[in-house]
Design a protein that fits this description.
Radius of gyration: 23 Å
CATH topology of one domain: Four Helix Bundle (Hemerythrin (Met), subunit A)
Distance between the termini: 51 Å
Helix content: 25-40%
Number of strands: 14
CATH class of one domain: Mainly Alpha
Order of helices and strands: EEEEEHEHHEHEEEHHEEEHEHHHHHHHHH
Number of helices: 16
CATH architecture of one domain: Up-down Bundle
Shape: globular
Structural class: alpha+beta
Strand order of the largest sheet: 1-4-6-13-12-11-7-8-9-10-5
Length: 438
């Protein structure tokens, strides 16, 4: 049995009084005392500054990760980057990892927010059960239990030792639960030991996972799989800002995309074609928030959207996600422009150029859809042909560096409040004005 703390869509409070965020940026940490719960922090506009001190006081060792996706075609180029070849980087070796996820055919466990899996790691099998708990004041309490088992098979006697959510009958589940999908991948590990820009010690573990999420499709008699190729940067020592500096150093040379999709989420969407993209909660601003907080949350909201839309298109091939991503990118550009009285242009010159470039390219690639809408039903055949020509152009764009650099640059700004370096007195005064009376 163990406890851990995780923050998905991390909000960092770093010399600011507002939340900053980056997609797929997580904080996890083991509770020093043995407790059967997880604490999970979810986005909320006004509760972060109030509850973060309480979380820090829970005696947890923080673990900060940034997950990036890349094409397998770029793996060898990544490994040849000066950072990986530096004498400041140690090779920690490779190891195969496998997870088998269990559920009922109608995914009853998933619908009750229950995760059940067995992990195989170096000949050891770990059975894990996670259940949803209660929520109070922005902190979400979950239960998690782990047991070592002798084989990659569920031990229901162990599962009977814990409390299951209401509505789930463990006796009935024992006959219905089955393997629903699996993850198989090879993990390659490196450790970067360096000094950050301020001369402070920096340690970053770099993990490259290559493999797939898969399941046997009985209906077709074949195997369905979603390829995995992810680079995880875990901050072992140092400041989160330095983690983004490492990521940007790589992203400026190799196309890397911010990715917050878990391996389990990949498995469930593989089973449910209609669930290529999980719903993204609407943003609600508070009129008492300062203009700076409002800006950060607006940008954060778009950063949660367009990378996911692009990834959803790559997974599903559904073109509807391309105009959604384009609209989100335009929204982000509009926020930067509209808040220029608190975000000096000098702080985002290069970002503005890259954003304009990507928006223009995506607009041109998506132009066929707008033209086709003018044709009505008579243009259906033309639209199909035009979309077929547009798809490889979109793939080429996503294999360029700009989208990933934009996302990482914005995320880095949010974490560091980078615009403050360029503030003048009028910017700071304006930034602290409440949204409701500005």
């Amino acid at each position: 049995m163990k406890g851990c703390f995780s923050v998905v869509w991390l909000h960092l409070l770093q010399q600011t009084d507002f939340m900053s965020v980056s997609c797929a940026f997580r904080v996890r940490g083991g509770v020093r005392q043995q407790e059967p719960e997880d604490w999970e922090y979810r986005i909320s506009g006004d509760n972060f500054p109030r509850y973060w001190p309480a979380v820090i006081g829970m005696g947890m060792a923080k673990e900060i990760e940034l997950k990036l996706a890349l094409s397998q075609h770029h793996v060898e180029v990544l490994k040849q980057q000066p950072l990986f070849l530096s004498d400041k980087v140690s090779v920690l070796g490779n190891r195969p990892l496998k997870n088998i996820y269990f559920d009922t055919p109608d995914q009853l466990l998933s619908r009750h927010k229950v995760a059940l899996r067995i992990r195989s790691k170096e000949g050891v099998f770990i059975q894990t059960l996670k259940t949803q708990g209660v929520s109070e004041g922005g902190l979400h309490q979950r239960n998690e239990w782990e047991w070592e088992v002798k084989a990659p098979e569920l031990d229901f006697e162990l599962l009977k030792q814990v409390e299951w959510p209401l509505g789930l009958d463990l006796t009935a589940l024992e006959d219905a639960v089955e393997p629903i999908f699996a993850t198989d991948f090879m993990r390659q590990l490196w450790l970067l030991e360096d000094l950050d820009a301020d001369g402070n010690p920096l340690q970053v573990e770099m993990a490259l996972d290559i493999g797939e999420v898969w399941y046997d499709d009985e209906a077709s008699g074949g195997r369905r799989a979603d390829p995995l190729c992810e680079l995880e940067l875990e901050l072992r020592q140092g400041e989160p800002a330095a983690l983004f500096e490492v990521a940007l150093q790589l992203a400026n040379q190799v196309p890397l995309q911010i990715c917050d999709i878990s391996k389990a989420e990949r498995g469930y969407r593989l089973r449910n074609d209609e669930a290529a993209l999980r719903p993204i909660a609407a943003l609600e601003l508070n009129p008492d928030e300062t203009l700076e907080v409002a800006f950060a949350r607006l940008v954060q909201h778009e950063l949660m959207q367009w990378p996911r839309y692009l990834e959803a298109w790559q997974f599903s091939g559904d073109w509807q996600y391309i105009p959604r991503a384009l609209e989100s990118l335009r929204n982000m550009g509009a926020v930067y422009e509209s808040f220029s009285d608190i975000i000096p242009y000098e702080s985002s010159v290069q970002l503005d150029e890259q954003l304009t470039k990507v928006i223009r390219k995506m607009r041109d690639i998506d132009a066929w859809r707008r033209a086709g809408a003018l044709m009505g039903d008579a243009g259906q055949a033309w639209c199909q042909s035009a979309q077929a020509r547009a798809e490889p152009r979109m793939e080429v764009l996503l294999q360029t560096r700009e989208p990933g650099v934009i996302a990482l640059t914005v995320a880095s700004q949010l974490v560091n409040a980078g615009w403050r370096k360029h503030w003048k007195e009028q910017h700071e005064a304006r930034a602290q004005q409440p949204l409701g009376i500005a």
